[in-house]
Amino acid sequence: MVARMTSPERMAAVMSGQKPDRIPVIPFVEGYAAKITGTSLGDFYADGDKCFEAQFASMRLHGYEQTPMYGYASCGAWEFGGEIAFPYGKGQGAPFVKRHPVNTIEDIEKLEVPDFDRELPGAYKIADVVASRCFELGMPVTVQIGSNFTAASVVADTSEFLTWLIMDPKAVHLLLDKVSDMFVNALDYFANKYGSESLLPFDG
Fold first, then answer.
1. Contact 147/203 with Cβ under 8 angstroms?
2. Is the terminal CB of the chain with fewer CB neighbours within 10 Å at N or C?
């Protein structure tokens, strides 16, 4: 009988350029993991430990390779000084923006890029909890590092952002540059803390 790799061995093989025994399965099932473990979506996104536990239980139940991770589509607004709300209400599926940090072209100029040298900005505090739990168990550390365009469109008031694409593309490029710098800073922080060989950056 041919010996099968474990999920960690399979991912380690892929990350080191070796051939795994089969293609790893990465189902991207955050909401599903919360559902099958009875974790509210609000708690799943607001509490890094609950986020990890729900995904780790789902991973063990189904035997896939995706290790616990933290991220959502509206990443960027909180990190740049805006506000988000967690999905505790009916019909809410992920954190959403309550207040955009950029509402005018002038706001883009004043926007400061989070540097990650002091307190981690926004959701990256929660992501770091999930990352540390994965690292302790020898699993890859998966961190959201993108998407630049999506993040820029929620850092700014989304309707204004769409208008600026046509009316002021230079301002949009400046905002995209600042968002890119934030993601580079995040990548540097997690690579320095957990080692680049352990890191699996993801872009939605």
1. yes
2. N
Q: Which CATH architecture has domain 7-202?
A: Alpha-Beta Barrel (3.20)
The neighbouring-strand residues paired with 141 are: 199
For 22-61, b where at least 16 C-beta lie within 10 A, e where not — what string?
Answer: eebeeeebbeebbeebebebbbbbbbbebbbbbbbebbee
C-alpha to C-alpha distance for 149 and 51, rounded to whole angstroms: 26
pLDDT value of residue 204: 75
**Residue ranges of domains in the chain:** 7-202
* Alpha helical stretches, state H, 16-147: 30-36, 41-46, 48-62, 105-110, 124-136
Instruction: Collect all residues with Cβ–Cβ distance below 8 Å to 179 and sequence separation of at least 6.
Output: 76, 148, 151, 152, 155
- Quote the CA–CA distance of 84 and 105 in Å, as a whole number: 21
Q: Measured between alpha carbons, how far is 135 from 69 in angstroms, rounded to an integer?
A: 11
Higher per-residue confidence, 16 vs 191: 191
